[in-house]
Amino acid sequence: MFVPKSHNPPLAALLIFVASAFLASTTLLAKALGTDTLGPPLHPMQISHGRFMFAFLVILCAVAVLRPTLRRPHWGLHIGRTSFGWLGITLIFASVAFIPMADATAISFLNPVFAMLLAIPLLKEGVGPWRWLAAAVALAGALILLRPTPDSFQPAALLALTAAVVIGMELIFIKKLSGREIPIQILLVNNAMGLAIATVAVSFVFQMPTPAQWAALAGIGVLMACAQACFVNGMARADASFVAPISYATLIFAALYDFVIFSVIPDVISIVGSAIILAGGLILVWREARIR
Questions:
Q1: Residue 75 CB: number of other CB atoms within 10 A?
Q2: Where are the alpha helices (DSSP H) in 179-210?
């Protein structure tokens, strides 16, 4: 599971799809923690801290059991990846406390578009007309979800949009690392560094969680560790600009979870905007499948 394989786009797509289900689950728990569902709302930085703390424990146990051969980490890439990752996940956790999960997830998952654009100068990946079309379609869907009118504009949506840009940059660091170090080492170092950053940040806003909140924080960490394992392995098997848009499946899971748990029914704008963003991702996946 943790050993990089050869170029394998179908397997990469499957791994990213599974990661999407896990990732949507962490957002669901973050929403419960950021509202009064499980007790007094926790600050987004405390939720982020719990995510890194418990994920680090899971990865550490995996390392102890698997005993992989670890190499000297590329500290510069790890610092960049972890810094962008911590900020991005904190912004997402903040946004879902104020707007529907489906909307926040749809906007934040523009990150593949930004990753695609950044992959041009940073990873030297080619971007043809179909990829540009997919990006344009996805951005149009995001504009709809932002509801840019005085009566319907959601300020919290800007948190998700900023998260998309930040996480798009994180994807570039993940891709760079995937060719240098084994996935389990990437996860171990990332979560260790993320925990250090989050611990400093949470010291300013910490409040004692309820037992239910502790359980939810642990759930976020475990699910995020599983999502990361799938995601990093997927990124190691195909171009970043190909596999990243498949994570749009998180939109479907987020909407389903929000409806089942919080009885949130997406309005027409949410459905149309999310569908357009998803269409952008599907155009890219369809095109890539035909030319491979």
A1: 10
A2: 183-202
d(C-alpha 229, C-alpha 1), whole Å:
8
Which pLDDT score, from 0 to 100, does residue 169 have?
A: 92
CA distance 211 to 219: 12
Res 7 pLDDT > 80: no
The 3-state secondary structure of 79-144, one letter per residue: HHHHHHHHHHHHHHHHHCCCCCHHHHHHHHCCHHHHHHHHHHHHCCCCCCHHHHHHHHHHHHHHHH
DSSP code of residue 40: S
In the chain, what is the greatest distance between 2 CA atoms, to the nearest angstrom? 57
Q: For residue range 98-126, list pLDDT tens digits in order.
A: 888 888 887 876 787 788 888 888 877 77
Please give the span between the terminal C-alpha atoms of the chain, in angstroms, as a whole number.
24
> What would the two tokens of residue 31 be?
């929403």
- Token reading at 158: 């800007």
Which residue's entry shows tokens 């940040």? 201
Could you give phi then psi for residue 156, rounded to 5 degrees?
Answer: -65, -20
CA-CA distances (angstroms) from residue 152 to 34, 155, 235? 22, 10, 37
Instruction: Indicate if the pLDDT at residue 83 is higher than 90.
Output: yes
67: left (phi over 0), alpha (psi -120 to 50) or beta: left
> Pick from 202, 232, 245, 177: which is nearest to 51 by CA?
202
pLDDT, tens digit (0-9, with 9 covering 90-100), for 195-230: 999 999 999 999 999 999 999 999 999 998 898 888
- Structure token digits, residue 138: 């996805």
Tokens at 75, concatenated: 């500290």
Q: Read off the tokens for 47.
A: 């939720």
CA separation for the pair 47, 56 (Å, rounded)? 14
Reply yes or no on whether the pLDDT at 162 is more than 60.
Answer: yes
**Spatial CA neighbour of 113 closest among 90, 91, 84, 142:** 142
